[in-house]
Amino acid sequence: MPAYNAEKTLEKTYNEIYQNSVDEIILVDDFSSDKTKDIAKSLNITTIVHDKNIGYGGNQKSCYRAALKAGADIIIMLHPDYQYTPKLIPAMASMMAFGEYDAVIASRMLGNSALKGGMPLYKYISNKFLTAFENIIIGQKLSEYHTGFRGFTREILEKLPLEDCSNDFIFDNQMLALILYNGYTIGEISCPTKYFKEASSINFARSCKYGLEVLAVSIKYRLAKLNLPIKLFNLKGKPLNTEKELHYYN
Question: Could you tell me the pTM of the whole model?
C-alpha cells in the first residue's frame, strides 16, 4: 500500500482485506504529515517510512522492492484511501496464480460504477478519452489505464526497467506500457469505486499534466514499436534496485 496522509481511511481499508488471502501487508509512508505510520504499526502492518516525500511513483518502487525482499510471487498494489474495495484481492490474485495473466487491473470503467461512486464528470470524460487514445495508439482493448488497484507477478517486477521510470503519477502509465511492450498479458476485473473527501485524488492542474504525459507515453510506445530511435522511458533501463535501503518503522 503506497500511503500518503491516509490516517482517516487506512483502518477501514485494512479491515476489508481477507487476511487468509494474503501472506503479508506492506505499507510505505511517503513522509506523511499525519499519523499514517503509527496507525499502520498498530494494525501490525509491515511499515516502511521515507525520510522525505519522493512522489507516488517513487513510493510504489519502495513497495515493490519490499515485496520482492519478502519473497512475494504475486503482488497486489492497493491504495489505503478506501477508494477501491480490498475484497477483490483474492479474485485478482487467482487470475495470476493460475497462469492466465501476468498482471491484473481492477477497472472502474467496466460496468456503471464510476459515476455512481462519485467520480467527477471531468475525470470520467478524461479517463474515457485517454483510454480510447491509448487503445488506438498502443493497439489494446483495455477499459482503462488509470486505476490505482493493480496486481503483478514477481517476474514483471524483477525484469522490467522500473528503476528509471518516473517518481510522479505517470509511473502507473509507464509501467503498463512497459508490461505490454514486453509481451506480458494484462487481465481486468470490474471494481466499484468510492469518491469522498478523504479519498486521495490529484487536483485539476496535476490531472492536466498527467493527461499530457499519458499522451506522450502512448506516442513513444508506438514509435518504439516501429523501431524508431526513441526511448520508451528507458527500454534498456535498470530493474528495481532491491539493494536500496528501506527504513522499516519499529
Answer: 0.94
Residue 156 domain-assigned?
yes
Asked if pLDDT for residue 92 goes beyond 90, the answer is yes
Is 245 within a domain?
Answer: no
One-character DSSP codes across 19-44: GGG-S--EEEE-S-SSSHHHHHHHTT
For residue 203, the tally of other CB atoms under 10 A from its CB is 8
Contact by Cβ (8 Å): 45, 25? yes
Residue 189: inside a domain: yes
**Total number of domains constituting the chain:** 1
CATH number at residue 111: 3.90.550.10
Task: Report the phi/psi class of residue 185: left, alpha or beta, with left for phi > 0 and alpha for psi in -120 to 50.
Answer: beta
> For the segment 140-182, what is each residue's pLDDT rounded down to a tens digit?
999 999 999 999 999 999 999 999 999 999 999 999 999 999 9
**How big is the chain by its Cα radius of gyration, in Å?**
17
Give yes or no for a contact between 142 and 135, defined as CB atoms under 8 angstroms apart: yes
Looking at residue 227, its amino acid is N
Does 246 map to a domain? no
